What does this fold into?
Amino acid sequence: SKTKLYCALVWLAAPLDAQRLEEINQQGALVLQQKTPVRVLHRRAPLTRAKRVLRLELVHLEGRFYKLRVEAEAGTYIKEFVHGDLGRTVPSLAQMAGVPADILELDVENVSLDFPPPLPSS
It folds into this structure.
């Protein structure tokens, strides 16, 4: 299985209190239900896909800005995980935070995969 580690700069409509921030950081692994994002519907089939978020960490930077680190299964739409894509990704960071969220920067920090794949036994 292939996973990716992302780092994102995120804006939230209101700062989070310490309790809400801790609740988000204690989420553990999540299974998202992601409908094909609005931004790619013109070129992708309208499906709902289950995608795993293995871990996430949200760190307050200043004001309404946060650093999000998330390790997720390959194929997870991270931008949509942050803002929720009009309710098309559940759960989303915005839903967990209880306020609208947007993503300002997104970087892939690491890609992990089992390579080479094991040979089939005869």
The mean pLDDT is 94. Strands lie at 3-12, 30-35, 48-62, 65-73, 89-90, 101-112. The two ends are 22 Å apart (CA to CA).
